[in-house]
Specification:
- This protein is α/β, with parallel strands linked by helices.
- Helices cover about 50% and strands about 10% of the residues.
- It is built from seven helices and five strands.
- Strand 4, helix 6 and strand 5 form a beta-alpha-beta unit.
């Protein structure tokens, strides 16, 4: 398990970062933290900005490139609080009925994200919306509908035939950090 490369998937506000840090301590593996907010800021954008598709896909490419560098540097096992699955879900979640989408560009991005997941991760764990939502300054929106929408996109992406990485789902009834850590280390 110490060489395992674990990615936590889930929408914002599901406890991925907290769980990743605790599992890293329990297993004695590095926690590779990603920061999409920093990538947005470095490129003059905010995650909450309304964007046309070309801007959204451009920033999503920047985000995956930055994350690939972080994940790719680690030669041993690790755990991270975000995966390409999350990145695809946020990209797809931004597409509305009237969004003009370059489907060739979208498919290339999705294929790239699946490829990165398959080569850099040995296991994915989905955290579904379950823990109480608490407002924190600088954190993402508490819109339960949007959080659930992203969760369903993530569940769907984790069942796509292009994904070759094993996936485990932590149930909505597993709420405490102690129970979540136990699920992670006893039920790989």
């Amino acid at each position: 398990m110490l060489k395992e490369k674990i990615g936590l998937c889930g929408s914002h506000r599901t406890g991925k970062t907290t769980l990743a840090a605790e599992v890293a301590l329990s297993l004695g593996i590095p926690f590779l933290r990603t920061s999409t907010s920093r990538v947005f800021a470095e490129n003059g954008l905010k995650p909450s900005d309304k964007m046309d598709f070309s801007t959204r896909i451009w920033i999503q490419h920047k985000i995956i490139e930055e994350a690939e560098k972080i994940w790719g540097r680690e030669t041993g096992g690790f755990i991270t609080d975000r995966t390409p699955i999350d990145m695809m879900a946020y990209t797809l979640g931004d597409i509305q009925g009237g969004t003009e989408v370059d489907f060739v560009e979208l498919e290339a991005y999705l294929d790239h994200c699946f490829h990165v997941t398959n080569i850099l991760f040995s296991r994915l764990v989905i955290l579904q919306p379950a823990i109480p939502l608490v407002h924190e300054k600088g954190k993402a929106s508490l819109n339960k509908g949007y959080i659930e929408h992203l969760n369903l996109l993530i569940l769907g992406l984790c069942h796509d035939e292009r994904l070759q990485c094993p996936v485990r789902i932590i149930g909505r009834d597993v709420l405490s950090i102690e129970a979540r850590v136990l699920e992670m280390i006893t039920n790989p």
